[in-house]
Fold:
Amino acid sequence: MNGGPADRLFQHPDVEPRTRILVMGLGGAGCNMVANIAAGWEEGPPVVAVNTDAQSLAGCEAPRVLQIGQAVTKGYGANGDTNLGRMAIEESLEPIKELLTGIDILFLVVGLGGGTGSGGAPLILQVAHQLNILTLCFATKPFDFETESRRLQAEESLKTIQRAADAVVVLPNDNLMELVDPSTGVLETFRLSDTQVGMAIQGIWHLLGFRGVINLDMADLRHLVQRSDGLCHFGFGEGSGPSRIPAAVKSLMDSPYLNKGRSVSEAAALLVNITGGPDLTLADMQGIMGQIKGHAQPGATVYFGAMIDPSMRNRIALTAIVTDSQSMKPARNKRVTSLEDELATASSAKKAKPVSATDQGDLPFKSEDKGRFSNSTPTTFRGEDLDIPTFIRRGVKLSFER
Amino acid sequence: MDIPPIAAVEIGTSRIRVAIGEVHDDDHLQVIGVGECPSRGIRKGEIIDMDAALSCLRIALHQAEEASDTQIKAVFVPVTGGHVQSMINRGSIPIVGTELEIHQEHIDDVQEIAKAVNLPNDRELIHSICQYYYLDDQKGVINPLGMEASKLAVDVMIVHGHSGRIRNLNKLLRSLHLEVEDCVLAGLCSALAVLQPEEKENGALVIDLGGGTTDFLGYADSTIAVAGSLAIGGDHISNDVARGLRMSIPNAERVKEASGSAIIHLASRLQKLDLPGDTGPDGRVVRLGDVQLITSLRAEEILTMVKSHVEDEDLLQRFGSGIVLTGGGAHLDRIDELASKVFGMPCRIGKSRDVSGLATTANRPEYATVIGLLRYAARAARRQSGSGRWTNLWRRILSGEG
Structure:
């Protein structure tokens, strides 16, 4: 593709990026997401998975992992306890600060409704803010069919995170159903959604980090999030074949997290990234920009970027981060004090209960699990048959079983 | 006066080991021959196939005899296994007379009373170990001689095992025309091998991580405060690996030795493993993280099990010198780090002290039991030649007194 339009659009970056971005997954769901995000990239910003649960990190495919809160959770998960999650971050503030040093933008990826992600995210965002890092948090919301307490906790956590982050992109799991046909497996669905989020992050990394035909800088991104109320929406669309442009735009407008296109038409600002193959032309890009601007309200600011992926020939993918203008974002100075108050109250509130390895409930075990000890006198302790592998009794999945 | 060569034979679950030593006047132990053979017919420290065990014993014995150019007639053996139990029995006597001073006769009397325990018919006494004296309401007296009280009491730890298992051990050795001089609690042997006198005084817990069993013995104030044997060990780690990665036990053992760890190396968790020949029919990728997940969970469980047995005695804070690990399991990567984490105190890998001769072999943690046994044997022989007082469990068993 030497000398073609592709080279002018996408220069393979051997240089240090102008803007340093870190993608951090926090908690079990966040770690799974960033693993999927990184798996979808040929190249992109550094990715780190941060969790309390050493066993889940052991199988995590993210390029880099950090275990936190070893003293607080003893290497297990936070069991949905946000207090434990917050205490784990408090314990491991130093390595987290180290990760954040020299970073300009943090993409924090969490699943709401758990312990580590929900409980720890506000503290990480606050630390990032003190280091003058622009923070965008991608937060998934639990399915409607999950427990009431989990959903309520997710709502509570979202409010705290919203105050601590420059912008939060909410990804309700329920909307995932619209993403795929009903026969698609749950893991595949998550993987698809994560890959799409990954493309948006990769697009921003490329736009901010390296020279493109259309430049975007940190000020633009700050402007985008400041015009939001702290909440953003995420959209993805794609098209292929001769009519790929209108198809991709329509697919973006229909994308599950954009509320049937309403989020676009009401947005104060949008950031759209176009990923095309080496055959992407300037005319294509102009066409896409025109159509998307047509959907947005007249005063809206629209930022565009574009990148080339050689595997995307004859195809186009669009990612959009769109501000939400439903409610007012609290003033920043107020936000910091209130967050600190909130964290202080949280720590003085009920002491987190210690995590026990045996909180896993009873599972039926088969005698073939005992292998060489099948015919031995069983070794038991407090009702547990110790001849059955520990990992089976704890319900821990190995990487190839997940 | 030099003592004639003494021999120790350990019928271990993974290895049968023989050590022959000479004790010189300065209590220095010189190992003059060792023999070792992988075990067959032993499970969880107990014999399940006499013939198989016998052929292994023959090989190990021959090696040691060749190396030392001696012929063994009598041996000391360690006793281990889930059947070994201990209990504390307290005996007391009134001190009568005009002066209440405690004389040696009082001490002998009260010991005798405390040691007089009626064990069930199928139980055999292995040791009775004096712990602490009580003078009226004063607890924890180590040497009451010459002190005054109106009542003297002593706690004695009664260690006992299943008669049948002990008899079978004896039978195995007798079929090679070896006389069993005495049998000694395996945990005591390991402690005798590796603990320095000041460690016994400060308090230390020795954990012998064997193949079929895990033996532990704790000293506090130079007194044996706790001892036990659990029927879980390195075999369980191998079995877990074999079950989890679906491979044969010998291959699982190789994988455990090459790649297992007590603490997961998160940085290299995604590294792919070159598996031994009999595996991978379904093209699975096995990762270092999977292996270490399995081994770390089991290792942590074994140590936690020991801790919970010790904690019953509320002793932990009295082990000022921390944990000392011996046995083949001490070779597991980062096991000392894990033990330090589980017990919250420093931990070291135990090397037999004051041994010469085949020191490089004898210093290995898996030799601690036989080396300690030689040390015990040397003391017993001195005592015997001195006072002529020699209680031999085996003679009692054979003469039907037991």
Q: What stands out?
A: Chain B touches chain A through 38 residues (CB under 8 Å). The longest strand of chain B covers residues 123-135. Residues 85-161 of chain B form a domain with the Dna Ligase; domain 1 fold (CATH 3.30.1490.110). The longest helix of chain B spans residues 288-311.
